[in-house]
Amino acid sequence: MDSIQQIFVQEATELLSELEEVLLTFEKDLTDTDSIERIFRVMHTLKGSSAMFGYDTVNNFTHELEYIYDALREGTLEATPEILELTLESVDHLKMLIEDKESQDQALVESQASLLNKIKKYNSGQGVEVVKDKVKVDESISTYYIKFKPFKDLMKNGSNPMYLLEDLLELGKGLVLPELNDLPDLEALEVSECHISFEVILETPRPLSEIEDVFMFVEDTADIHIELIIEGAVLNEGIILELESKAIKQRPFGIETISGIIQNIQEKEQSNNSSKPQNTSVASDSKNSINSIRVSSEKLDALMNQISELVTSQASLSMLVNGLEVTELTAITENITKITRQLRDNAFSICLIPIDTLVIRFQRLVRDLSKDLGKQIELVTEGTDTELDKSIIEKLSDPLLHLMRNCIDHGIEHSDVRNEHGKKTQGTIKIQAYNSGTNVIIKISDDGAGIDLEKVRQRAVEKGIITPNTELTEQETYQLLFKSGFSTAVALSDISGRGVGMDVVKRGIEDLQGDIFIESEKGKGTSFTIRLPLTLSIIDGLLVEIGENTYVIPLYLVDKCYEIPAALLTDVSQQLVLDGDRIPVFHLREALRCANQSPEFNQIIKMKFQNEEVGLSVDKIIGEHQVVLKPLGHMYSEQEEFSGATILGDGTVALVFDINKLLKKLINESSNNISHGKLSYQ
Hints:
Shape: globular
Helix content: 40-55%
Strand order of the largest sheet: 6-8-9-11-10
Radius of gyration: 33 Å
Number of strands: 21
Distance between the termini: 47 Å
Largest sheet: 5 strands, mixed
Structural class: alpha+beta
Strand content: 15-25%
């Protein structure tokens, strides 16, 4: 796929996502004229873009669909659930058309033929409830800038630009300014070719769609640009004379110049008349500055890689300067360190995208699956403007979709069952997101039936996962749901029940250095809480020494540090009392089988694992360190307790612990039975 085509595919995907979002909003109120306008506007943009980039099938299909919403805008057609359903089906079809530009797939061709037949029935008025004697009249005046540049061969198909301008001026009051810059010498002039362009300022009470309809049959033989100048009527005698006089020397104007002229004359007139400024604003005021730009993800990845190298080089510089004891050089180095950290944080913020980008997909999922299952479900979101690294967002989609499907299928009951239990007929699934320190918390909850722990236990026994005599805590029982092949569904379905969902969820989240917890109350509902780091590329770490080697523990996991006599640590795992609380502590020196002399004192790092406090013992805490994560490579893929490595300032390599996988391994290998059932991993 060439770069131009990639631009279209990206823009079209964003437009279809926006269209889907508006349609789901429109479904809640089929009389909402603002939604109808937005739907039409997105369709019209998609149609124009697809024609420009050679996606003729997308262009033609969208053009047919657009007619329905044009009729809805005009008030000659009444919106119905059937029209909405047809539009959503068409959106799904357009997604496939964009992926298959040539439309060679036979199933795709048949699907398009079927959809077009349904669409054309509405366009022809067959089987449609038409709103009779209803004409949409918009009395408000708007002023538009229109740039009409016919191609040379426009008149060869029978079109006449003069007739088009006449049709345009019938919509309201206008001023036509011809542009003659492309007019050839008399000897080279061809009477069958068009060499004149036109700028038009048009005041009209008619909607934008009617202006666009004037050019409907010359869209492929002319460049047409229509843009709102101002809400209101401005073409008074002073402005017309000013534009006509300037047009002799300055053409073409462009919307910015015309907007500026209008604004200047308005200000002069207001000053001369000592009148109150009009309550209108020129469109160019907001368009002279660009608030955002589109940047490819490849460029962002390259930027992050360069900043990663900068962080590593800065660490080397700091280490060298510390040994020189030159005051001026130390000050400069500290400033570079500060700037590097700020640059890193700014680059992070550029690469962060809101979780809201996933919500449209979830809204569609809830709508379609609840309809298929005959359930009434509402999706509620809170804090979805919370941001995550784009690489995490991309990998998070599938785990969250699995959780949503489970909430819909297993969690929310049918309406009659909910009524029997005194619940609202409509079930609710809620997505909440918020920042917690350097973590992002995402919580998906439902108000459904909850988890039957006894049923989960029985099914685990049937599957041979546990024995009938196995004693499990509540949290341990929940963890059984994440076992591969585990399912409590009685019958298989296309939605769930094949035992290939929850284990994928847990594995996907752990691959992102995150963890997941379950809370449930039978008859009240279930919630899944996911904790994730903000980013995976550069993190703040705690540099520690174990034996003769240096390691990194992600700083966001660290709660508190203690120093204890090494003599108190007698095994790989044991219970110690810290600040009055008895917690399990794992001795990493013993776990890693270090042969060198043990120090007199050890450092204990307290953190949380599966909602329980746990400690890790190290020989020495060196301090905080900005960690640029590097992959270990396929030769070390079996070392799951390490998520990567980083290069220190002196050029040595330090391994970065994956704390979740490290603790699971230590718990499984531990020879001690941790009291009270804490942290016994199944």
